[in-house]
Amino acid sequence: MARELSYAQKVERSIIKTYRKDIWNPFIQACQNYNLISPHDRIAVCISGGKDSVLLAMCMKHLHKYTLIPFEVEFICMDPGYNAENRNRIEQNCENLEIPVKFFETNIFNVTASAGGNPCYLCARMRRGYLYAIAQELGCNKIALGHHLSDVIETTVMGMFYGSQLQAMLPRIKSTNFEGMELIRPLYCVHEKSIINWRDYNSLTFIQCACRFVDEYSHSADGIGDSKRQEIKKLIAQLKKSNPDIEHNIFKSIHNVKLDTFISYKQNGTEHSFLEQFNP
To answer: How many other C-beta atoms can be found within 10 angstroms of the C-beta atom of residue 272?
Structure first.
Protein backbone atom coordinates (compact mmCIF):
# COMPACT_ATOMS: atom_id res chain seq x y z
CA MET A 1 0.00 0.00 0.00
CA ALA A 2 1.46 3.34 -1.10
CA ARG A 3 2.04 5.84 1.67
CA GLU A 4 0.13 9.09 1.64
CA LEU A 5 2.29 12.03 0.67
CA SER A 6 2.15 15.28 2.62
CA TYR A 7 1.18 18.50 0.84
CA ALA A 8 4.81 19.60 0.72
CA GLN A 9 5.88 16.25 -0.71
CA LYS A 10 3.23 16.49 -3.44
CA VAL A 11 4.42 19.97 -4.42
CA GLU A 12 8.03 18.78 -4.43
CA ARG A 13 7.08 15.73 -6.47
CA SER A 14 5.41 17.91 -9.10
CA ILE A 15 8.81 19.50 -9.81
CA ILE A 16 10.44 16.19 -10.74
CA LYS A 17 7.38 14.62 -12.35
CA THR A 18 4.90 17.03 -13.94
CA TYR A 19 7.53 19.74 -14.53
CA ARG A 20 10.60 17.59 -14.96
CA LYS A 21 11.22 18.82 -18.53
CA ASP A 22 10.43 22.48 -17.86
CA ILE A 23 11.90 22.97 -14.36
CA TRP A 24 13.93 20.09 -12.94
CA ASN A 25 16.01 19.31 -16.02
CA PRO A 26 16.90 22.99 -16.70
CA PHE A 27 17.71 23.41 -13.00
CA ILE A 28 20.13 20.46 -13.13
CA GLN A 29 21.47 21.71 -16.47
CA ALA A 30 22.41 25.07 -14.94
CA CYS A 31 24.02 23.44 -11.90
CA GLN A 32 26.14 21.20 -14.13
CA ASN A 33 26.94 23.55 -17.02
CA TYR A 34 28.08 26.39 -14.79
CA ASN A 35 29.60 24.29 -11.97
CA LEU A 36 27.34 25.95 -9.42
CA ILE A 37 27.61 23.30 -6.70
CA SER A 38 30.83 21.64 -5.56
CA PRO A 39 31.51 18.96 -2.95
CA HIS A 40 31.37 20.30 0.63
CA ASP A 41 29.70 23.58 -0.33
CA ARG A 42 27.46 25.10 2.31
CA ILE A 43 24.84 27.12 0.43
CA ALA A 44 22.47 29.73 1.85
CA VAL A 45 19.28 29.56 -0.23
CA CYS A 46 17.78 33.05 -0.04
CA ILE A 47 13.99 33.25 0.16
CA SER A 48 12.32 36.57 -0.63
CA GLY A 49 8.79 35.18 -0.52
CA GLY A 50 8.09 35.25 -4.24
CA LYS A 51 7.45 32.27 -6.51
CA ASP A 52 11.02 32.14 -7.84
CA SER A 53 12.87 31.95 -4.54
CA VAL A 54 10.43 29.43 -3.06
CA LEU A 55 10.74 27.18 -6.12
CA LEU A 56 14.52 27.47 -5.80
CA ALA A 57 14.25 26.39 -2.16
CA MET A 58 12.17 23.35 -3.13
CA CYS A 59 14.61 22.38 -5.89
CA MET A 60 17.61 22.74 -3.60
CA LYS A 61 15.86 20.81 -0.86
CA HIS A 62 15.16 17.91 -3.24
CA LEU A 63 18.66 17.98 -4.72
CA HIS A 64 20.21 17.96 -1.27
CA LYS A 65 18.31 14.79 -0.38
CA TYR A 66 19.19 12.78 -3.48
CA THR A 67 22.41 14.10 -5.04
CA LEU A 68 25.68 12.21 -4.86
CA ILE A 69 27.51 15.50 -4.32
CA PRO A 70 27.94 16.12 -0.58
CA PHE A 71 26.81 19.68 0.19
CA GLU A 72 24.78 21.44 2.87
CA VAL A 73 21.99 24.00 2.68
CA GLU A 74 20.64 26.75 4.90
CA PHE A 75 17.34 28.41 4.06
CA ILE A 76 17.32 32.07 5.02
CA CYS A 77 14.89 34.96 4.68
CA MET A 78 16.23 38.44 5.26
CA ASP A 79 13.26 40.61 6.27
CA PRO A 80 13.92 44.15 4.94
CA GLY A 81 10.76 45.46 6.59
CA TYR A 82 7.86 43.42 5.22
CA ASN A 83 4.37 44.43 6.26
CA ALA A 84 2.55 41.95 8.50
CA GLU A 85 0.57 40.44 5.63
CA ASN A 86 3.62 39.68 3.50
CA ARG A 87 5.64 38.35 6.44
CA ASN A 88 2.78 36.06 7.42
CA ARG A 89 2.42 34.80 3.84
CA ILE A 90 6.12 33.88 3.67
CA GLU A 91 6.03 32.13 7.02
CA GLN A 92 2.89 30.20 6.12
CA ASN A 93 4.25 29.08 2.73
CA CYS A 94 7.52 27.89 4.24
CA GLU A 95 5.65 25.99 6.94
CA ASN A 96 3.26 24.37 4.43
CA LEU A 97 6.13 23.43 2.12
CA GLU A 98 8.30 22.17 4.99
CA ILE A 99 11.12 24.61 4.29
CA PRO A 100 13.13 25.13 7.51
CA VAL A 101 13.73 28.83 6.97
CA LYS A 102 15.59 31.16 9.33
CA PHE A 103 14.40 34.79 9.45
CA PHE A 104 16.68 37.77 9.98
CA GLU A 105 15.36 41.28 10.67
CA THR A 106 16.72 44.45 9.04
CA ASN A 107 15.46 48.02 8.50
CA ILE A 108 16.39 48.29 4.84
CA PHE A 109 13.01 49.59 3.66
CA ASN A 110 13.09 52.39 6.23
CA VAL A 111 16.63 53.37 5.29
CA THR A 112 15.97 53.43 1.54
CA ALA A 113 12.68 55.30 2.01
CA SER A 114 14.51 58.27 3.52
CA ALA A 115 17.72 58.09 1.48
CA GLY A 116 16.49 59.85 -1.66
CA GLY A 117 18.24 59.35 -5.01
CA ASN A 118 17.77 55.86 -6.43
CA PRO A 119 16.10 53.78 -3.68
CA CYS A 120 15.93 50.61 -5.83
CA TYR A 121 19.69 50.58 -6.41
CA LEU A 122 20.43 51.23 -2.75
CA CYS A 123 17.92 48.61 -1.61
CA ALA A 124 19.41 45.98 -3.91
CA ARG A 125 22.95 46.66 -2.69
CA MET A 126 21.94 46.62 0.95
CA ARG A 127 19.93 43.41 0.61
CA ARG A 128 22.80 41.68 -1.16
CA GLY A 129 25.25 42.80 1.52
CA TYR A 130 23.02 41.56 4.34
CA LEU A 131 22.52 38.20 2.62
CA TYR A 132 26.27 37.69 2.22
CA ALA A 133 26.89 38.68 5.84
CA ILE A 134 24.16 36.40 7.21
CA ALA A 135 25.32 33.48 5.06
CA GLN A 136 28.91 33.94 6.15
CA GLU A 137 27.86 33.95 9.81
CA LEU A 138 26.13 30.62 9.18
CA GLY A 139 29.34 29.15 7.78
CA CYS A 140 28.20 29.23 4.16
CA ASN A 141 30.46 29.86 1.20
CA LYS A 142 27.70 30.57 -1.33
CA ILE A 143 24.33 32.27 -1.53
CA ALA A 144 21.73 31.06 -4.05
CA LEU A 145 19.25 33.51 -5.57
CA GLY A 146 16.12 32.79 -7.58
CA HIS A 147 16.87 34.68 -10.79
CA HIS A 148 15.61 32.74 -13.81
CA LEU A 149 16.17 32.71 -17.58
CA SER A 150 13.58 35.42 -18.18
CA ASP A 151 15.43 37.70 -15.72
CA VAL A 152 18.65 37.05 -17.64
CA ILE A 153 17.04 37.96 -20.96
CA GLU A 154 15.29 41.06 -19.67
CA THR A 155 18.45 42.32 -17.94
CA THR A 156 20.42 41.94 -21.16
CA VAL A 157 17.87 43.90 -23.22
CA MET A 158 17.42 46.55 -20.51
CA GLY A 159 21.15 47.16 -20.41
CA MET A 160 21.19 47.84 -24.14
CA PHE A 161 18.00 49.92 -24.30
CA TYR A 162 18.45 51.99 -21.14
CA GLY A 163 22.06 51.55 -20.02
CA SER A 164 23.85 51.95 -23.36
CA GLN A 165 25.78 48.75 -22.75
CA LEU A 166 25.80 45.06 -23.55
CA GLN A 167 25.83 43.42 -20.14
CA ALA A 168 24.50 40.03 -19.09
CA MET A 169 23.64 38.46 -15.74
CA LEU A 170 26.16 35.77 -14.78
CA PRO A 171 25.08 32.44 -13.27
CA ARG A 172 27.96 32.54 -10.79
CA ILE A 173 29.79 35.52 -9.25
CA LYS A 174 32.66 35.88 -6.79
CA SER A 175 31.94 38.43 -4.08
CA THR A 176 34.34 41.36 -4.03
CA ASN A 177 33.43 42.42 -0.48
CA PHE A 178 33.08 39.07 1.29
CA GLU A 179 36.18 36.94 0.89
CA GLY A 180 35.54 33.35 -0.13
CA MET A 181 31.86 33.96 -0.87
CA GLU A 182 30.05 33.38 -4.16
CA LEU A 183 26.58 34.04 -5.56
CA ILE A 184 24.94 31.35 -7.69
CA ARG A 185 21.72 31.30 -9.74
CA PRO A 186 20.54 27.67 -10.12
CA LEU A 187 17.31 28.66 -11.95
CA TYR A 188 19.37 30.31 -14.68
CA CYS A 189 17.96 28.05 -17.42
CA VAL A 190 14.33 27.95 -16.19
CA HIS A 191 11.69 30.08 -17.96
CA GLU A 192 9.49 32.25 -15.78
CA LYS A 193 6.42 30.87 -17.55
CA SER A 194 7.31 27.39 -16.28
CA ILE A 195 7.53 28.73 -12.73
CA ILE A 196 4.12 30.39 -13.10
CA ASN A 197 2.65 27.13 -14.41
CA TRP A 198 4.12 25.21 -11.45
CA ARG A 199 2.74 27.78 -9.03
CA ASP A 200 -0.76 27.60 -10.52
CA TYR A 201 -0.71 23.80 -10.82
CA ASN A 202 -0.14 23.57 -7.07
CA SER A 203 -2.55 26.47 -6.26
CA LEU A 204 0.23 28.34 -4.47
CA THR A 205 -0.01 32.02 -3.57
CA PHE A 206 3.07 34.16 -3.05
CA ILE A 207 3.80 37.81 -2.40
CA GLN A 208 4.35 39.53 -5.74
CA CYS A 209 6.52 42.42 -4.64
CA ALA A 210 7.31 43.26 -1.04
CA CYS A 211 8.82 46.63 -1.94
CA ARG A 212 6.63 49.52 -0.78
CA PHE A 213 7.82 51.65 -3.71
CA VAL A 214 6.40 49.33 -6.34
CA ASP A 215 3.40 47.92 -4.53
CA GLU A 216 1.18 49.32 -7.29
CA TYR A 217 2.50 46.69 -9.71
CA SER A 218 0.66 44.01 -7.80
CA HIS A 219 -2.58 45.92 -8.25
CA SER A 220 -2.19 46.92 -11.90
CA ALA A 221 -4.84 45.73 -14.34
CA ASP A 222 -2.48 43.39 -16.22
CA GLY A 223 -0.58 42.24 -13.12
CA ILE A 224 2.60 43.53 -14.71
CA GLY A 225 2.89 47.24 -13.99
CA ASP A 226 4.91 49.99 -15.65
CA SER A 227 8.55 49.59 -14.59
CA LYS A 228 11.26 49.44 -17.26
CA ARG A 229 11.69 45.72 -16.60
CA GLN A 230 7.98 45.14 -17.09
CA GLU A 231 8.11 47.23 -20.24
CA ILE A 232 10.81 44.94 -21.62
CA LYS A 233 8.80 41.89 -20.51
CA LYS A 234 5.84 43.13 -22.56
CA LEU A 235 8.07 43.88 -25.55
CA ILE A 236 9.59 40.40 -25.56
CA ALA A 237 6.12 38.84 -25.25
CA GLN A 238 5.00 40.87 -28.26
CA LEU A 239 8.05 39.92 -30.34
CA LYS A 240 7.56 36.27 -29.40
CA LYS A 241 4.28 36.24 -31.34
CA SER A 242 6.15 36.61 -34.63
CA ASN A 243 9.41 34.99 -33.49
CA PRO A 244 8.82 32.07 -31.06
CA ASP A 245 12.60 31.65 -30.67
CA ILE A 246 13.25 35.22 -29.49
CA GLU A 247 13.98 34.25 -25.87
CA HIS A 248 16.21 31.35 -26.86
CA ASN A 249 18.11 33.57 -29.31
CA ILE A 250 18.75 36.34 -26.78
CA PHE A 251 19.87 33.80 -24.17
CA LYS A 252 22.10 32.04 -26.68
CA SER A 253 23.66 35.35 -27.76
CA ILE A 254 25.26 35.96 -24.34
CA HIS A 255 26.96 32.57 -24.70
CA ASN A 256 28.19 33.40 -28.19
CA VAL A 257 29.83 36.84 -27.98
CA LYS A 258 32.15 37.78 -30.86
CA LEU A 259 34.52 40.26 -29.19
CA ASP A 260 36.47 40.88 -32.39
CA THR A 261 33.38 42.55 -33.90
CA PHE A 262 32.96 45.08 -31.06
CA ILE A 263 34.23 48.65 -31.16
CA SER A 264 35.20 48.47 -27.50
CA TYR A 265 34.70 46.33 -24.43
CA LYS A 266 35.63 46.31 -20.76
CA GLN A 267 37.33 43.45 -18.99
CA ASN A 268 38.26 43.53 -15.29
CA GLY A 269 37.62 47.28 -15.29
CA THR A 270 39.98 47.96 -18.20
CA GLU A 271 38.60 49.31 -21.46
CA HIS A 272 39.83 47.83 -24.73
CA SER A 273 39.35 49.16 -28.27
CA PHE A 274 39.35 47.42 -31.63
CA LEU A 275 42.02 49.98 -32.59
CA GLU A 276 44.52 48.11 -30.38
CA GLN A 277 45.08 45.66 -33.25
CA PHE A 278 46.22 48.56 -35.43
CA ASN A 279 48.67 49.99 -32.91
CA PRO A 280 52.33 49.62 -33.97
So the answer is: 12
